[in-house]
Specification:
The chain has 254 residues and is mainly alpha-helical. The chain folds into 2 domains: 92 residues, Arc Repressor Mutant, subunit A, CATH 1.10.10.10; 147 residues. A two-stranded antiparallel sheet has the order 1-2. A hairpin with a 5-residue loop joins strand 1 and strand 2. The chain is globular. The N and C termini lie far apart (46 Å).
């Protein structure tokens, strides 16, 4: 049986349609990011190859090639027979090394640009909800968010990703939902990597609560300010982590 998180909004987004270019590499990168950041945890079972091909909207051959690469790098293993399939095999040290490589490969400009776009989509979502007078719908979103009590970074990223997707859905804009899924798959797991830090996690979740409270009260600009501060805090943490990762990479190459 698949892990219960396979039904969550953020995990479902991992398997959203992949696009039209560089299909194998994009599938591989999306799954690698999900594994490295803990959204897909050791022991989690991926959907079957046919189901993945359908969700990604690619051929079965493309899915098999991407999964083969992940097996070759020891991120997945295959189990045959009843209850078999492709399972996440990475351990914590491997995941940490994978994440360091991913972060170090991005330039400061790339990270800043992606974070700016992430915030732009979030701003558009909040303004659209306000323009359509849908603020009251966020009461249920707030209740769900408040009930969540993640105790580690991976769980917190799932909650954060789920909140972002839920907000996009509440905007009732198909285009905004599509863009939120796309930027979340391209960058969301990395942007919120700072949620591993308990103090930063508390700060960001407090800002999320403020954002929801301000939206429900009809104070859209204040909500956008709180949301923007959360992204800025995460961006600074990620850039600091990138500097550390690049320094470690230079030291290892000496």
């Amino acid at each position: 049986m698949e892990d219960s998180r396979s039904n969550s909004a953020v995990t479902a987004a991992i398997y959203a349609p992949i696009g039209e270019k560089a299909l194998v590499s994009r599938i591989r990168q999306r799954l690698e990011d999900a594994i490295a950041t803990g959204v897909l945890a050791p022991g989690d079972r991926l959907p079957g190859e046919t189901a993945l091909a359908s969700r990604f909207r690619v051929s079965l051959v493309t899915v098999r090639e991407a999964l083969q690469h992940l097996r070759a790098t020891n991120l997945l293993y295959t189990k045959q027979g009843r209850g078999g399939g492709s399972f996440v095999a990475v351990d914590s040290r491997h995941a940490s090394a994978l994440l360091e490589q991913r972060i170090a490969a991005l330039s400061r400009a790339e990270i800043t640009d992606l974070a700016t776009y992430y915030r732009t989509i979030a701003d558009g979502v909040l303004r659209t909800i306000s323009a359509m007078g849908l603020e009251e719908n966020l009461c249920a979103v707030r209740e769900t968010f408040i009930r969540a009590d993640p105790t580690d970074g991976a769980a917190a990223r799932s909650v954060q990703g789920g909140l972002d997707l839920r907000l996009a859905g509440e905007s009732q804009s198909v285009r905004l939902v599509h863009e939120q899924i796309r930027i979340q798959n391209d960058f969301g797991a990395l942007l919120w990597i700072g949620l591993d830090d308990a103090e930063l996690r508390d700060s960001i979740f407090a800002l999320n609560r403020t954002m929801l409270d301000e939206m429900i009260s009809g104070h859209t600009d204040a909500a956008i300010t709180a949301r923007g501060e959360a992204v800025t805090i995460s961006l600074r943490w990620l850039l600091s982590r990138r500097n550390d990762a690049q320094r470690h990479e230079r030291e290892n190459n000496r």
